[in-house]
Amino acid sequence: MSKEGTTSSTEKAAPKGDVKNEHKPNEKPAAEDAEALKEALCQEKAKAESYLANWQRAQADYINYKKRADQERGEATKFANALLIANLLPVVDDFERALSCTPDNLGGLSWVDGLRLIYRKMVAVLESQGLSEIKALGETFDPNLHEAALHGEGEVGKVVSVLQKGYKLNDKVIRPAVVMVGEGTKENPKNKQSSE
What we know:
Blueprint: H1 3-6, H2 9-13, H3 30-78, H4 82-100, H5 110-128, E1 131-134, E2 146-152, E3 159-164, E4 166-169, E5 172-175, E6 177-182, H6 189-195
Parallel strand pairs: 2-6
Antiparallel strand pairs: 1-4, 3-6, 4-5
Helix pairs in contact: 4-5
């Protein structure tokens, strides 16, 4: 075969002197490729920024969840014994009543001193767990801390008598103080008639 027979049909069709259009018909010029690449890069950057923002949001949500869970766990631990302590308060009340009614002639006996020690130890243990007594006598009546059982003679709106002590556990009221609230001084009917 001759040299002419080995050449491909595309080489025969293209004239040798035409150099202007050397790229294939499916190829785009270099400027169009650069624009397409820039646009694709911008799209990918937008996707990456979106992914980063979503990841940061998820990380912040997780950190907030962890803080909230730790706080709830701490509160649950703090108040886990609240029911037990509330059930022990009547025992403390009974100790106080028994010790306040002890006759003076029994005050020096060892078993009475032993009861006082047990009472003080029990109160100390409860206080170490966060129990504190609500101050009531002479204070302004506060429905969040006090429960009014009676109204009597005394300064209006002030607690004039404590019928049962109230307690807080870590600043949360577990038993309000049962109190008598003053409603003013009552005028004596004889004085009222004499002034008329």
